[in-house]
Amino acid sequence: MLSTFPDPHSTMGVASMAFVLRENLRSGVKSILPVLVLILYTILGALIFQWIEGDQETAEIDVLREMRERAIEKTAFELNVLKSKSPIEAYNYTVKVLKKYNEKVGIVEADMDNLKWSLPGAIFFCITVYTTIGYGNIYPVTTTGRVVTIIYAFIGIPITVICLYSLGQLLARVCRLIWKAFLRTTRVVSKDLSKKVEELGEKTNSDAGSDQQKDENDLSSFPVSILLLITVVWVIFSSLLFCYIEDDWNYGTALYFALISFTTIGFGDVLPSNYSYMILIGIVVILGLSIVSTTLSIIQEQIEGLAEGMKGDIDKEYLNALAEAKDEGEVAEAKASTALEGPPENLDVEAHIATMDPRSLDAVVSRMPLRSRILYNIMPASSKKALQKQSEDLVANLVEEELLKLKLAAGPSAPASPSSPAPPAGPAYETSLQ
After folding, report:
1. Cα–Cα–Cα angle for 307, 263, 154, nearest 5°?
2. From CA 345, how far away is CA 6, in angstroms rounded?
3. Computed from CA positions of residues 359, 360, 363, 365, in that sequence, does the dihedral angle turn out positive or negative?
4. Which end of the chain is more exposed for a tag (fewer CB within 10 A), N or C?
């Protein structure tokens, strides 16, 4: 029976220990690598935005400071004429001058006709809470309001997730109907479209109902290009609507607000000021969130589906890569090296396979087509682990057969008689290679 733990005093044991340490280090680096990439990405973004926006902010502060200094000087100069006025005239004149000063420094008087906490404004606030956008233009200031906001968010966010999923399912059904009608009308004949027609067509056998229902519920069967087109159209339409509602917005500002809202970034730098349209804006934002989230989830599902499909083809891909390795002589070279050295007493099979055998998973993946290599790199960690296990099982079966042959070839042979000559080394070597 082969030992799982290598002998540290043997050459193969040292190599196996080095391989284990290298694999552990590689696994640790792979786990930390995304964090390091995110840190570098954050620093890079901070430097870029500081370079772009820093000078503009400094210029705005200088202009604002200069405007305030001029307003103070002008106000002080105008207040000096109060000495020649009566008390009532001086009071009225002072109020008038201070109002002008407030206007110059940007202090806006409260407007009772445009309250934030009106019913439309409160509805808009609720939408920003459970969609996690959080523009920041409407927020609670009382302790009770803050506590209720937290409780409301805990309840509303899961409901919103379910709602967005349901809207996404409805959107997918509508898009499928349009897609099927388009295919049947145009009679387009191509490989991809025929596949879609076959998937979306009606079944006539006894399992038609269940298969069709499964296909309708499987969003990954829908072409992403159609959803991307719908997303672009909805963003354009929403931007035009926002531009119509807000008189002081141009199309670029409206487009920026739409994209910031649909991606739930919600900086709060561009906000709607017409609170009478807040309900309409909230509905548009929710529909946009549903479309964008559905599109992103379908893209993720299709990537995972393609990656999972690779598991079904791993045997074929593995055998193809193995055949290619045999054609190039790598497998024979590995066998010859093992045969000359003889099977070690204490052998870590997995380390031995990975360090010496060109049939290891890394070697096989490197020989696969580009598409398969890309799918292998982007598949989730759980899928990679299952793929690794499947590959190791396949390799283990092949290697155990070879090790058995090597043991039989290197085993004690019958003692030669004095009259019979010793067998030549060449045939034994050839036997060990077989």
Report:
1. 95
2. 9
3. positive
4. N
Residues 31/37/43/49 CA torsion (nearest 10 deg): -140
Helix axes 381-410, 278-312, angle to 10 degrees: 10
User: Do 277 and 139 share a structural domain?
Assistant: yes
pLDDT at 235 over 90: yes
Q: Which residues contact 201 (CB under 8 A, 6 or more apart)?
A: none
Ranked by mean pLDDT, the top range of 161-175, 250-264, 407-421 is 250-264
Question: Containing domain of residue 260, as a range?
Answer: 119-293
Q: Is 246 in the same domain as 328?
A: no
Q: Is the pLDDT of residue 248 over 80?
A: yes
When divided into structural domains, the chain yields a total of 2
Q: How far apart are CA 301 and CA 351, in angstroms?
A: 34
Enter the tokens of residue 175: 């898009």
Residue 360 banded pLDDT, cuts 50, 70, 90: low
Is residue 62 situated within a structural domain?
Answer: no
Mean pLDDT of 402-424: 59
What value, to the nearest 5°, has the Cα angle with vertex 162 and ends 156 and 166? 135
Name the domain boundary from 293, 326, 341. 293
Which residues have C-beta within 8 Å of that of residue 249, sequence separation ≥ 6? 242, 243, 257, 270
The amino acid at 144? T
The answer on 340 and 272 residing in a single domain is no
55 pLDDT more than 70: yes
404: pLDDT strictly greater than 50? yes
**133-159 tens-digit pLDDT:** 888 888 888 888 889 999 999 998 988
**292 close to 264: Cβ distance less than 8 angstroms:** no
Q: Are residues 348 and 386 in the same domain?
A: yes
Q: Are residues 123 and 174 in the same domain?
A: yes
Are 246 and 190 in a shared domain?
A: yes
Mean pLDDT over the full length of the chain: 70
pTM passes above 0.70:
no
